[in-house]
Amino acid sequence: MRKALILSAIFMALTQTAVAEESTTTVDNCVIQEVLPGKDMTGAFVTFHHKGPQVNIESAEIPSITTHIELHSMEMKDNVMTMIPLTSPELNEGVREFKKGGDHVMVMSIPEDKMPKVGETHTMTFNFSDGTKASCDAIVKSVDEIMQEAGKAGTADMAHQH
């Protein structure tokens, strides 16, 4: 009986520890845009679902492609959209999207032999200020697919407009 009580107490302690460390943030809709010819960088997009107290997004990782990942925002400067470091890393209760034309993940310095190809999936992991992480399988999509999903004309459509 005593062993059962001790084992029960240990189990409860382990279970409570696991629950305390569980992330309050999940990610989905993870997408990496194909790399344009002649480039060694591309964008990636994600939807965050956060519950609980505010946390900051500290970094992102896609080790199967590169170690050089940056988080960016877009800013209108002299009538031109330009990339700047992420201006607001906070995740508050609710949903936040990183999408084409807005906040996004920049996948940079991609080696020639690790170029992501349309249809592949790569694990994308986000690290938060509370020590938690959230991962997803990001599918590589063509520029046209991403532009269509963003509600913008794709490169093929743009070619017909000229």
Automatic annotation (TrEMBL):
Superkingdom field: Bacteria
Any Pfam family: PCuAC
InterPro entries associated with the record: LpqE-like, Lxx211020-like, PCuAC_sf
Signal peptide: 1-20
Keywords of this entry: Signal
SUPFAM superfamilies: DR1885-like metal-binding protein (SSF110087)
Protein name: Copper chaperone PCu(A)C
Organism the protein comes from: Oligella ureolytica
Taxonomic path: Bacteria, Pseudomonadati, Pseudomonadota, Betaproteobacteria, Burkholderiales
